[in-house]
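Exam revision sheet. Question 4 asks you to relate a sequence to its structure. Input first:
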Amino acid sequence: MKLGAFSVSLSVKDITVSKSFYEKLGFEVMGGDLSQNWLIMKNESCIIGLFQGMFENNILTYNPGWNQNAEELDSFTDVRELQKQLKEKGIDMLSEADESSEGPASFTIKDPDGNMILVDQHR
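Answer key, structure tokens:
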């Protein structure tokens, strides 16, 4: 199963402080909007998202259709197909993509330890 580009979405208290901290670790801003309290940062193939005031806990995030540089892939498995496959394997959905839609959509699940997983397709 190919879930797409992987990142960790971090719920931060102060995005400016967090940005400065991760820059010291070698991360550079590759996207987002500081004025809207969210940034995407990258260090080699590692990607993190910093999000202030948007959600409570950290989230493992996958983006079907993107590579680790947020570039569109020619071929990928649509989020609705991934959702269908996971449901067939007995994975409970917390939120679901509308199976009758096309384009951007997402679903969320939790692993056995309660870690949130977001599969978020942007195209």
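Marking note for examiners. The longest strand covers residues 5-12.
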